[in-house]
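Backbone-to-sequence.
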C-alpha cells in the first residue's frame, strides 16, 4: 500500500513537471523540428511569456482628461436645452447665456415676464437635468450655478467614463497586456497607459484620443430638389442665422466629391452648413458600427451603424416628419455626410465617403466604444526600445542565475546529500512559477523577476526549516525514517504560517498597487503557493524513495 502511494506521488510530480516544461518551452502552433533547437526554445519561451514594458520595450503615455472642457460643454448644452424647453412650452424667455471659466459655471435665462419664473423653472426641469446645480432668481433672470463640490463630482465621473471608454478601445485595438490606471493626484484627471511591444504609438494615440462624437442633425435650408444649402465662409453662414435660436455653423467636408485629377490639384475649398440643435439622435443611442467596403477597394470604405430601440424610435419619428429635407451626419463637430431623406428610416444609417480600411475600422471601433466625455491631452510620451528591454532581461536573468548558483553551492556544502533534494525542488519551483504566469496570462516585469528571486529565497527557507528539524530529531537519537517524517510534519505548520502571512501581504500589494507592483505581487504569490508543492510534496517524495530503497538506513547525508 505504501509503495502504491509512492508511485501515485511520483506520477503526479512527473505529470506536473512535464506540463510545466511544455508550457514554458513548448511551441504554441504547429510543432516543427526547429522548435526544439536551442534557438527555437529561446523563441518559444519569449513568445509564451508575456513580457512587460520594461523587458519587451514599448510605449508609455501619460494623458489627462480635460475636465474643464467637459464642464464647459455641459454648461453650454444645458443652457441651449433650457432655452429650447422654455420656448417649446411657449413661456416668456427672451434668450439665455452662460459663463464657464475659472471654476465658475453659471447659466442665465432672461425673462420678459418675471411673474412666470416658476413656470419656466418647472418646464425646464422636465427636460434638463439640473441635479447638483444651485438655483436662484433675480428680477427677470433665472440662474443655475454649479458649486465647486458638484464640479468635482462631475469631473470625477467624466474621468471614470473616459477611462472605461479608452480601456475598451485599447482592448479592441489588440495591444497585448497593456497597463492602464489612474496617475498622479486623485483630482488630476491623469491616466497612465503602458503598451508593451508598441514602438510606434501614433495610431494608438489617434485612436484613443478621438472624442468620436456622432450626431444626426437637420440641415437648415430649402428642401429637395434644391441642393444642400452651403456657404463659402463661416462668416456668411453665421450671418444667415440672424439671431435665430438653436442654430450652429459646422464645416462640411463633401467626401463624395470627385477626387483631384492629379496629386498637384488642390483640394476643393471648405464649405459650411447651418444645422439645428439639439441633435435628433447622438452616439449614445448607437447599438453597433462596422466598416463596410462597397467596391472591394481598400480606399473606398463606409461606416454603417444601427441604433438601439429608443434611438431607432426617435430617428424614425423625426425622419417621418422631415421627408424631403437634408440630414447631416456630424462627427466631432464636422459634417461628414449630407443625406437626403427619401422615406422614414428607423434603425440604421451610414457615414459614406472615401475612408481607407484602417481609418474606417478605427472610426467604427471608436463609435462602438462611445464618445469620450472630453478631449484627451497628452502630457508625457516615452518609448522604451527593445534593446533596453533586452538589457533588462539579461540583467534580471543574470541576477536570478547568480542567486540560484550561490544557493545551490551553499545547500550542497552545508546540507550535503539532502542539498541535492533541495536544489531539485528549487529548480522545479522556478519552472512551475513561470508556467503559472503563462497559464494566468500574466505579464512578467522587472519587479516580477525580483519577486521570482525573493520566491527562491523563501523556497530555500522552507528547506532549511525542514532540514534543521530533521537534524534535531537525528540528534535526539531517532531513526532516519522517523526523523524524516517528524521533520516534515513539525516544520509544515511553520512553513504554512510564514507563507500565508507573505501571501496576504502580496494580495494587498496586488489590490492597491498597479503595473510593476502587481507584477511583483503575482510572481511572489505564485512562487509561494508552488513552494508548498515543491519544498514539501516533492522533497518528501524524494526522501520516501531513498527510504524505500534502503528501509534500514542508519545515516542520512544532511
Amino acid at each position: 500500500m505504501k509503495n502504491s502511494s509512492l508511485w501515485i506521488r511520483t506520477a503526479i510530480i512527473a505529470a506536473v513537471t512535464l506540463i510545466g516544461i511544455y508550457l514554458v518551452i513548448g511551441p504554441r502552433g504547429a510543432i516543427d523540428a526547429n522548435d526544439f533547437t536551442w534557438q527555437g526554445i529561446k523563441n518559444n519561451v519569449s513568445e509564451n511569456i508575456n513580457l512587460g514594458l520594461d523587458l519587451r520595450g514599448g510605449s508609455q503615455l501619460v494623458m489627462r482628461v480635460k475636465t474643464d472642457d467637459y464642464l464647459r460643454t455641459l454648461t453650454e448644452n444645458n443652457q441651449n436645452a433650457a432655452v429650447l424647453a422654455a420656448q417649446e412650452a411657449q413661456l416668456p424667455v427672451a434668450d439665455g447665456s452662460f459663463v464657464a471659466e475659472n471654476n465658475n459655471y453659471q447659466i442665465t435665462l432672461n425673462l420678459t415676464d418675471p411673474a412666470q419664473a416658476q413656470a419656466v423653472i418647472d418646464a425646464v426641469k422636465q427636460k434638463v437635468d439640473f441635479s447638483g446645480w444651485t438655483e436662484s432668481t433675480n428680477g427677470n433672470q433665472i440662474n443655475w450655478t454649479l458649486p465647486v463640490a458638484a464640479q468635482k463630482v462631475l469631473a470625477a465621473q467624466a474621468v471614470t467614463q473616459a477611462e472605461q471608454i479608452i480601456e475598451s478601445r485599447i482592448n479592441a485595438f489588440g495591444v497585448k497586456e497593456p497597463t492602464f490606471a489612474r496617475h498622479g493626484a486623485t483630482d488630476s484627471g491623469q491616466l497612465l497607459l503602458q503598451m508593451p511591444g508598441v514602438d510606434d504609438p501614433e495610431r494608438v494615440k489617434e485612436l484613443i484620443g478621438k472624442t468620436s462624437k456622432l450626431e444626426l442633425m437637420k440641415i437648415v435650408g430649402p428642401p429637395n430638389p434644391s441642393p444642400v444649402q452651403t456657404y463659402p465662409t463661416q462668416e456668411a453662414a453665421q450671418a444667415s442665422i440672424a439671431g435665430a435660436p438653436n442654430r450652429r455653423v459646422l464645416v462640411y467636408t463633401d467626401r463624395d466629391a470627385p477626387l483631384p485629377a492629379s496629386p498637384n490639384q488642390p483640394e476643393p475649398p471648405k464649405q459650411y452648413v447651418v444645422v439645428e440643435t439639439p441633435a435628433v439622435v447622438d452616439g449614445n443611442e448607437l447599438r453597433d458600427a462596422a466598416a463596410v467596403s462597397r467596391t472591394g477597394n481598400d480606399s473606398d470604405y463606409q461606416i454603417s451603424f444601427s441604433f438601439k430601440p429608443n434611438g431607432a424610435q426617435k430617428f424614425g419619428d423625426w425622419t417621418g416628419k422631415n421627408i424631403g429635407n437634408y440630414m447631416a451626419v456630424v462627427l466631432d463637430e464636422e459634417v461628414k455626410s449630407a443625406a437626403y431623406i427619401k422615406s422614414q428610416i428607423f434603425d440604421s444609417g451610414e457615414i459614406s465617403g472615401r475612408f481607407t480600411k484602417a481609418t474606417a475600422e478605427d472610426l467604427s471601433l471608436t463609435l462602438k466604444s462611445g464618445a469620450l466625455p472630453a478631449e484627451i491631452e497628452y502630457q508625457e510620451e516615452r518609448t522604451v526600445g527593445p534593446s533596453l528591454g533586452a538589457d533588462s532581461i539579461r540583467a534580471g536573468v543574470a541576477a536570478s542565475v547568480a542567486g540560484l548558483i550561490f544557493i545551490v553551492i551553499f545547500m550542497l556544502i552545508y546540507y550535503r546529500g539532502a542539498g541535492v533534494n533541495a536544489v531539485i525542488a528549487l529548480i522545479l519551483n522556478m519552472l512551475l512559477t513561470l508556467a503559472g504566469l503563462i497559464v494566468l496570462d500574466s505579464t512578467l516585469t522587472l519587479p516580477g523577476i525580483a519577486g521570482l528571486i525573493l520566491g527562491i529565497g523563501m523556497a530555500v527557507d522552507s528547506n532549511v526549516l525542514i532540514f534543521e528539524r530533521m537534524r534535531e530529531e537525528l540528534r535526539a537519537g531517532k531513526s532516519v525514517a522517523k526523523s524524516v517524517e517528524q521533520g516534515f510534519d513539525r516544520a509544515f505548520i511553520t512553513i504554512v504560517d510564514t507563507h500565508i502571512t507573505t501571501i496576504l501581504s502580496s494580495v494587498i500589494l496586488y489590490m492597491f498597487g498597479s503595473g510593476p507592483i502587481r507584477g511583483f505581487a503575482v510572481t511572489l504569490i505564485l512562487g509561494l503557493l508552488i513552494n508548498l508543492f515543491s519544498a514539501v510534496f516533492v522533497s518528501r517524495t524524494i526522501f520516501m524513495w531513498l527510504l524505500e530503497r534502503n528501509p534500514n538506513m542508519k545515516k542520512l547525508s544532511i
